Sequence to fold (242 residues):
Amino acid sequence: MTESRHPDRHRLRDLVPWRRGAGLPPGQRELGVFPRFSDDPLKPPPRLPAEPELVVTGAVERELRLPLPGVVGPARRADVVADFHCVTTWTTRGLRWSGLPFCAFWHHVVEPACGPSPDTSCVVVEGLDGARAVLLLEDALAPDVLLADRLDGEPLTPAHGAPLRLVSPRQYGYKNVKHVHRIEVHAAVPPSTYGPKEHLRARVDLEERHSTTDPRLLRAVYRPLVPLTAAVSAWSLRRGRR
Fold:
């Protein structure tokens, strides 16, 4: 993994989102590094179970439990090179993710094995760290959405979501849940654990940062907090390794 992908080795000045790189979405600034970032930066990555598994539950006829090593098989593995856009206005470009396309997982695993409700409208993806994101099924089935287990040719580290991470490049980072272990199927949109902070679509190109607040105001609030949040996240990562 390249030096820029090590989230505990960044200099503070590298964490300031000031570069206006060409082609960035509205309100975004480029970082040359990929920091560990969290809604709770003081919380280290979760300890992984000895035998991690992925559970599919909710509005299904049959619950499914899959050992994680078997989720991403070589037959359907795909690579996606994409920019990562955090809602707090920073972007890291050209990340190379590898994993199972969510649409393949849905059509070839979930539908035949679980029998999801014909009225399914969305899924809730949950991580071992307690993070939960609500995604419309149509957004989750976009061709570039992955259940990723590799980044830049190497297995995911705890900092970036091991053992499995949802990668949805067209949506802000809070939809890209780390440490995925549970997917709930829903016929109706459930309440968000983020409250109004979570926009249902969170589309980067439309700057859907928040369900109620003007995104231009959020830029001014979020951007100054990026270096501190990333630095604290890196500190909690080092603490968690002890």
